[in-house]
Design a protein that fits this description.
Elements: E1 7-13, H1 17-25, E2 41-46, H2 55-81, H3 88-107, H4 114-122, H5 125-139, E3 144-148, H6 161-164, E4 168-173, H7 187-197
Antiparallel strand pairs: 1-2, 2-4, 3-4
Helix pairs in contact: 1-4, 2-5, 3-4, 3-5
Length: 198
């Protein structure tokens, strides 16, 4: 299996981010729709359906992780150098453009259900990466990433082992480092979120 097709990306903190994105697009919220004191956590999961079982898979996951980090860093830098990229109008227009692209792609398939389309839009990796980067740039926040090698069972709560064992995980936060987070580990908020959807 090609690892890029067995990967998944999302924002797990704040937990209601997908709803906020939709409310923002419906003009019920303004930008920024994440407060400056809120922790934002982004994840990239490698080996969503299959396990990272050999050195080649690990190297591929590390390359994908580097690409994800570079994409976010590039967007943060663009937002910092062009202040219009963090205005209500610009952000809403870019999300709307992406939503139209998704709707067009889905209309070509048989999956044309308005609820599924809204879920797909609010969980779109491009929109989520931009959301994470735009809020970091808007508040001039620090951020860091942590790449976790294939997770052994001892690191995973028992009820999540089937989903997470031997998967690699890249976590990113709008904080200078892990010491500035209110958790003993970066895995704590991720596992708490995953437990609510598993």
């Amino acid at each position: 299996m090609i690892l890029a097709n067995d990967s998944y990306m999302g924002i797990f903190v704040p937990r209601d981010i997908q709803n906020r994105i939709l409310q923002f697009m419906d003009e019920k919220l303004t930008f920024p729709f994440i407060r400056d004191d809120e922790i934002v956590g982004v994840f990239f999961l490698f080996g969503k359906d299959g396990k990272i079982s050999n050195e080649i898979d690990m190297l591929n996951a590390k390359d994908l992780a580097r690409n994800g980090m570079n994409q976010i860093t590039k967007e943060v830098n663009l937002c910092n150098s062009m202040s219009n990229r963090t205005t209500f109008e610009f952000v809403r227009e870019s999300y709307t453009r992406r939503a139209l692209q998704i709707s067009t792609d889905l209309s070509k398939s048989s999956k044309r259900d308005s609820i599924k389309i809204r879920d797909r839009i609010s969980g779109d990796p491009t929109i989520l990466i931009n959301c994470f980067a735009q809020h970091i740039a808007y508040y001039r926040q620090d951020y860091f990433f942590e790449l976790l090698n294939p997770l052994p069972p001892t690191q995973i709560p028992e009820h999540l082992r089937e989903k997470m064992e031997l998967r690699m995980l890249l976590l990113g936060f709008n904080s200078k480092n892990v010491e500035n987070l209110p958790y003993v580990s970066t895995l704590v908020p991720f596992f708490a979120w995953l437990s609510t959807i598993a």
